[in-house]
Design brief:
Blueprint (H helix, E strand, L loop, with lengths): L12 H51 L7 E9 L2 E11 L5 E9 L10 E8 L3
Antiparallel strand pairs: 1-2, 2-3, 3-4
């Protein structure tokens, strides 16, 4: 004859529910961290592409044969299958032989007050 112990070993329903609650809280925290990481990665990628656009615009201006006057220009550029908006502002400096050129790059029209990237350079007058 087999004897059954009067004491049953195992977890109660309450203990299982508490363990599941702890696991659920831990997993939700891990999901939040992963989501934040993905959002930051996308933002940094956009910022990097915007910086590349700004640097390309400055390089085009550096290669242009004309001496830039004080002006403001806008345009678009394609980078990473995205149409980026940019504005270029040329300003005089205290030295008449040097111009400051600043390019601001935007993701779309709503971002005009806060550009994703702003790049500046100084150009000397060609001799």
């Amino acid at each position: 004859m087999i004897r059954h112990s009067p004491r049953v070993h195992g977890f109660t329903l309450f203990e299982v529910l508490v363990a599941l609650a702890v696991v659920a809280i831990g997993l939700s925290a891990a999901i939040k961290v992963a989501s934040s990481h993905i959002n930051n990665t996308a933002y940094l990628q956009e910022k990097t592409f915007a910086h590349y656009v700004g640097m390309n615009i400055l390089a085009e201006w550096q290669l242009a044969p004309q001496w830039p006057g004080s002006s403001r220009k806008t345009g678009t550029a394609l980078m990473a299958k995205v149409e980026w908006r940019w504005s270029l502002e040329t300003m005089a400096t205290p030295d008449p032989n040097i111009r400051r050129v600043e390019v601001s790059v935007y993701f779309d029209e709503q971002d005009e007050k806060s550009p994703l990237a702003r790049v500046a350079a100084f150009y000397g007058k060609p001799r």
